[in-house]
Amino acid sequence: MILSLTAEAKDYMMDQLAIAEKNYVLLEVKGGGCSGFKYDWSYVEDDSKGTVIDGTLVVDAMAEMFLFGCTVDYVRELGGNYLIVKNPQAKAQCGCGESFAL
């Protein structure tokens, strides 16, 4: 499997998909951010862009090599709630966790 979702992340995505009336959450990796690459989240209607994980998340085919072995978690903190990608391949990450370097 390319990556795994925690139960909290899957529940959060399912709730958001119901609100947005969409079928999947799409995770892509794009150039940019303060560390070189950034995670990009969006909604999609179909799974044509990549691999479906746990029926809720589509991993973009071009991003698979950057996300292999990752875990997506949903974090609840005093400052806010958010999805985080725990990437064992990352050599560096920015402070907010939105971008990384390999």
Descriptive account of the structure:
- With 102 residues, the protein is an alpha+beta fold.
- 18% of the residues lie in helices and 48% in strands.
- The protein has 2 helices and 9 strands.
- It has helices at residues 7-20, 64-67; strands at residues 3-5, 24-32, 36-44, 50-53, 57-60, 70-77, 80-86, 92-93, 99-101.
- The strands form 2 sheets. The chain has a 6-stranded mixed β-sheet. Strands 1-6-7 form a 3-stranded mixed β-sheet.
- The model has no long low-confidence stretch (mean pLDDT 89).
Keywords:
single chain; 102 residues; alpha+beta; six-stranded mixed beta sheet; three-stranded mixed beta sheet; 9 strands; 18% helix
Task: Furnish the topology, listing elements before pairings.
Elements: E1 3-5, H1 7-20, E2 24-32, E3 36-44, E4 50-53, E5 57-60, H2 64-67, E6 70-77, E7 80-86, E8 92-93, E9 99-101
Parallel strand pairs: 1-6, 2-5
Antiparallel strand pairs: 2-3, 3-9, 4-5, 6-7, 8-9
Strand arrangement across the biggest beta sheet: 4-5-2-3-9-8
Instruction: Compute the number of strand runs.
Output: 9
- Unreliable stretches (pLDDT < 50, length at least 5) are none
Helix share of residues?
Answer: 10-25%
Give the class from helix and strand content and strand pairing: alpha+beta
Number of helices: 2
- Tertiary shape: globular
Q: State which percent range the strand residues make up.
A: over 45%
Q: Termini separation (Å)?
A: 20 Å
Average pLDDT works out at 89
Radius of gyration: 13 Å
Please give the largest β-sheet: 6 strands, mixed
Run of helices and strands: EHEEEEHEEEE
